[in-house]
Amino acid sequence: MLARRIISLALVFWLAPATVCADEAASAPPEKSEDAQLVKARKLFSEGAALAEQGLWSQALAHYERADAIAPHAAIAYNIGVCERALGHGTRARRAFERALKLDAEAEEPLLAESMKETIEGYQKELNRLMARLTVKLVPKSATITVDGRPLTSRGKRWVAGLAEPGPATSPKREQLVIELDPGLHVIVVSSPGFEDVVLRETLAPGAEMKRDLTLAWLPGELQVSADREGAAVSIDGLDVGLAPVALRRPAGAYHVEVRKPGFEPYFADVRLKPAAEVELEAVLAPEEVALYERWWFWTGIGAALAGAAVVTYFVVRPEPTQPALDGGGLGWTIRVP
Predict the structure, then answer these.
(1) What is the pLDDT of residues 47-90, one digit of tens each?
(2) What's the number of domains the chain is made of?
(3) Given the DSSP bridges, would you call strands 144-147 and 184-191 parallel, antiparallel or unpaired?
(4) In degrees to the nearest 10, what's the CA dihedral of 91, 93, 98, 102?
(5) Percentage of the chain with pLDDT > 90?
(6) Domain co-membership, 121 together with 6
(7) Of 38, 63, 123, 320, which has the highest C-beta tally within 10 A?
(8) How far is the C-alpha of 49 from the C-alpha of 79, rounded, in Å?
(9) Cβ contact 169:156 at 8 Å
(10) Contact at 8 Å (CB) between 67 and 97?
(11) CATH number at residue 146
(12) How many CB atoms are located within 10 Å of the residue 187 CB?
């Protein structure tokens, strides 16, 4: 029976209150504040053991944790581990057992019986065998991650879920990490500024090994284009997108914007849209200035001027007419008439 694994009598010296003879009671000094706290810890420990015997593991765990906060002891850590294991919290149970062995090793005299140490080692092997492992690839590397609303705890080259209290997400700052988790359903959230969150729901079997590529997609930005003239047509990268004003969601990147309306000078702009950002453009369209050579009367005048110039040029540059040779008649006389 699991409840029998709880230490309830091994701490006789620590639990048993000091006895005072009746003759000495009157002259005994009052308890110090720390002694009162120790009495409270003993009481919490005893109550926890009684709850564990009934299989009320959550309540027992709460009592042991309160006692441990007052007077840390290897036996309390051991009992915490037993409760966590019974509740299915493998990562937390393993941590409690490791702490029990550490407190025992640091004490001047052994606090745990050898049989208890062997039991802990057996539990540790069992928990390591049942632990699920999830290898995730994080892109971008700056992404943060939580498992079941809790940050991860570093454990050498691996990360452990379920040890930390709910709080801010972990930022491992690495592209790939291995996470140890208890078997069961977990909700994994990965996020990074400018990217869409990834929410992953995974049910992991005992001892499962799983890999997931958690590549985040850029959040689109919003491009808003307005104009000071009604009916102005907007195009982006050569594609018509409607009449101003328009608001468009586009992936991050560079865009060429044109706003046109007949009779007005076109408006051009090159913009760089950042993820989840907003860019506002207001096109000011100036009336179109028609060049002199584009006006009808200009070409009419030019035509007339060119015609006149051709006549003048002809008379200026025409050659002198060649007169025919004079006919002297039968006598060979010729008369030149001026």
Answers:
(1) 999 999 999 999 999 999 999 999 999 999 999 999 999 999 99
(2) 3
(3) antiparallel
(4) 140
(5) 64
(6) yes
(7) 63
(8) 8
(9) no
(10) no
(11) 2.60.40
(12) 12
On whether residue 292 sits in a domain, the answer given is yes
Do 79 and 109 belong to one domain? yes
Distance, in Å, from the CA atom of 80 to the CA atom of 120, rounded to the nearest integer, reads: 12
Give the residue carrying structure tokens 């919003």.
222
Domain extent, residue 273, equals 218-316
In a domain, 199, yes or no: yes
Task: Kindly state whether residues 195 and 227 are assigned to the same domain.
Answer: no
Query: What is the bridge-based pairing of β-strands 209-215 and 132-139?
Result: parallel
Tell me the one-letter amino acid at 333: W
Those residues whose C-beta lies under 8 Å from the C-beta of residue 102, and which sit 6 or more positions away, are none
pTM exceeding 0.85: no
- Cα atoms found within 13 Å of the Cα of residue 88, Cβ hemisphere only: 7
- Taking only the tens place, the pLDDT of each residue in 144-203 is 999 999 999 998 888 999 999 999 999 999 899 999 999 999 999 999 988 999 999 999
Name every residue whose Cβ is closer than 8 Å to that of residue 172 and which is 6 or more positions away in sequence: 138, 145, 152, 159
Residue 298 confidence (pLDDT) above 70: no
Q: How far apart (Å, rounded) are the C-alpha atoms in residues 75 and 6?
A: 9
Amino acid identity at 156: G
Q: Which of 187, 215, 243 is the last residue of a domain?
A: 215
Identify whether the C-beta of residue 87 lies closer than 8 Å to the C-beta of residue 79: no
At residue 50, what is the residue type? A
